[in-house]
Amino acid sequence: MTESILIQGGHVVDPANSLDQPADVLLEGGKVAAVGKVKADADRVINARGLLVLPGLVDLRTHVGEPGRDSEETIAHAAEVAVHGGFTTIACMPDTDPALDNVAAALYVKRQSERAGYAEVVPVCALTRGRAGRELSEIGQLVEAGAVAFSDEQRAENSPAAILRGMQYASMFDRAVIEYAQDPELAGGAMNAGKECSLAGLPGISPVAEELAISRACMFAREAGAHYHAALLTTRNGMRAVKRARKLKVRVTAEVAAHHLCFADEVVRRRYDTNFKVFPPLRTHDDIKWLKRGLAEGFIDCIVSGHRAVPPQEKELEFGNATFGAVGLETALAAAWEQLVIGNVLSRADFVAKLTINPARILRLQGRKGALAPGHDADVCLFDPNAKINVTPASLHSRTKNSPFMGATLTGRVVATVARGRVFEF
């Protein structure tokens, strides 16, 4: 039996219900029971004075190695890492081995998540079998098994016909298609193409790869009447492509990873640290300004962790040979808070929406996730906006420590997370 929990004296920020005020939150039976001035005899009382009380964060992009690469990050461990960062729901991508392209795989993710008992892990399933870009997966059956969206991530073949056909089928079941915003023919390289790349002597990844991929996917979405979600925007023209499509009434949403708001490509040449080798690559300061503008104007809907654990033996190589990826579940909230709220780009409520109700809607989880309303899951993040956190190998709970924020001090700390009606204090 889940205990009743009363969170008292905090400041509730719940954009889905237009709340940004002092309030109490009562959780009973694993659900939100009441928000406001609450008088109740709860099994447990949490003093939230001085804290922001947020809906549990929802991450649209977490990579787990299981099945196939369990040494990187298992489903259970990723769920545990997530609650340390305030995330109570994470969408795992289908780039596992084998791919998440069948009912058994989708049910396996859900079962492992339930057994772990931390954040809920929901499957984004492969659009095509084996992510090969040829034969479509059984989309209808996967939806019944719990698929929240479809994506081939970085598919084996660049098959425009398969993408269009997949969007048509996914739209029949009201599911978004998440397309990687990088054209594979142009996206080879190690860092952003440009001045810093030339000075570093590394092969470059052209920004055009992003604009081309987004523009093409938007045309497919318009043709199919589908919901296309543009993954990991990094460039000015990528953001503009989304903006153009939105103005043409194309059903397109977009995301940006927290680390892409914090670092420009010059850090790669200056530090030559493979923790900064991420895909898509870190871009220019001008690109970052445009990403922030896209967030402020509402053309970029979500902030994601982009969490990808990479074993040390794959990072401790020359920059050009190291594997792409960075862990981000534990740093995304604080890093984005510094850039966007402290940096006066977004209001507190708009910022929280991009980590809660917006991703919940894209994953078709609204009504259960992303808000503190009666009947919603008892998922809460207690956040101290003024506390400092030092990012060190010891402070990160992920099995691997490949964080671009290593050694940095960030403002904002998750004090406690309530997930599945259980309290995790840090």
Produce the secondary structure layout.
Layout lengths: L4 E10 L4 E10 L2 E6 L7 E4 L4 E4 L1 E7 L11 H10 L2 E6 L10 H14 L3 E6 L13 H6 L4 E5 L6 H13 L3 E5 L10 E2 L2 H6 L3 E2 L2 H17 L3 E4 L4 H12 L4 E6 H5 L3 H6 L13 H13 L4 E3 L2 E2 L3 H4 L16 H11 L5 H6 L3 H6 L17 E11 L18 E11 L2 E4 L1
Parallel strand pairs: 1-4, 1-5, 6-7, 6-16, 7-8, 8-9, 9-10, 10-13, 11-12, 13-14, 14-15
Antiparallel strand pairs: 1-2, 2-3, 5-17, 17-18, 18-19
Descriptive overview:
It is a single chain. The protein is an alpha/beta fold and 426 residues long. It has one domain: Metal-dependent hydrolases (TIM Barrel). Helices cover 30% and strands 25% of the residues. The chain is built from 14 helices and 19 strands. The chain has helices at 75-84, 103-116, 139-144, 160-172, 195-200, 208-224, 236-247, 258-262, 266-271, 285-297, 312-315, 332-342, 348-353, 357-362, and strands at residues 5-14, 19-28, 31-36, 44-47, 52-55, 57-63, 87-92, 120-125, 149-153, 176-180, 191-192, 204-205, 228-231, 252-257, 302-304, 307-308, 380-390, 409-419, 422-425. The strands form three sheets. The chain has a nine-stranded parallel beta sheet with strand order 15-14-13-10-9-8-7-6-16. Helix 4 packs across helix 6 and helix 7 (236-247) packs parallel to helix 10. The model has no long low-confidence stretch (mean pLDDT 96).
